[in-house]
Amino acid sequence: MSHEISIEQYKSQVKAVWVATAWLSFFTIIEVVAALLYMNAYPNGDGPRMLLNLGFILFSLLKAGFIVGEFMHVRYEARALALTILTPLLFLIWFIIAFIWEGTEWQNNRNTWGVKIEDQRIPAKGHGQDTHDAGTHSAEPKSGH
Amino acid sequence: MAAETTAGGLNVGQAWSGGKSPFDVSYGKLMMWYFLVSDAFTFSALLITYGTIRASNPTWADPNKVFNSFPGLEGMDIPLGFVSVMTFILILSSVFIVRAVQEGHLMNRVGVVKWMLLGILGGAAFLGCQAWEWAHLIHQGQTLTANPFGPPAFGQLFFLITGFHGFHVFSGVVINCIVCAMAATGSLERRGHYEMVEKVGLYWHFVDLVWIFVFLAFYLL
User: ipTM score of the complex?
Assistant: First the structure.
């Protein structure tokens, strides 16, 4: 669709894009600096991460907002179009919660039924051995070491 | 996200009474959007798989120790240095394509071609960086079966997800080249609009968007 635009509109749009670029760079720099500061404070990576991770996620979502809103032009589209694109993504909320939950439970099973961490680090020898994962063990507790 | 009233279509009765697209957008752009929504779910599934497998492992690789090399500066410890450069390259490449779209609105053929060439250059540079990073990690012993930094699953997911993203970048570069050639030969000008640039631009920004979350999952969290 070719929209005839005036030179003033063009100039303001170009400016908006460079402003968004500056924000994207700014957020990325903040993220990297935060990661480096954390690494300096806790060289073994054993410090509290909750706040740091929340910050990373927040800044990444802000960056995503600039890309989708400004670069992909969603801010300027009809509301119906923005909704038809963005609302399906709400499914991701439960997708993320459910699967991280599942993964954590999986680790609990491993810890409970004694599947050794070291087993993970040995390069695979054969397929038969690999398929004996936490699921098999939890169904058969006697095989725990 | 707040929609702007200037876009029209806010008056539901008018927008949906027929005779024109209620989304106020062409068929091609709408379909590109729906493709991107489905692709977003593909990438989400991959990244959530990463999160699930990571949560299921008692130990995991420390990104600051895995990604600390920089080409030309062997032996130095520069955590997150190279990947930051890669991120900036991809963001800038995305910006160049936005500029091409804007020049297209002015029907400025030379401007479109110039900015698209810069965007293609950025995409190719990103792919080169990724090739170096992969080669370096493989050289250090991170393969699909073994990993000196942690569980092998880390390397497997790294190669799977950055590989899938890299393949998107590669296809984006190819499609950008085709559209750039169409712009350069004047074939888009004869159509009377540069909407092809907008469509491939949407795809290209999406690739940048995915990288934000790959960067988050693998390098930051």
Answer: 0.86
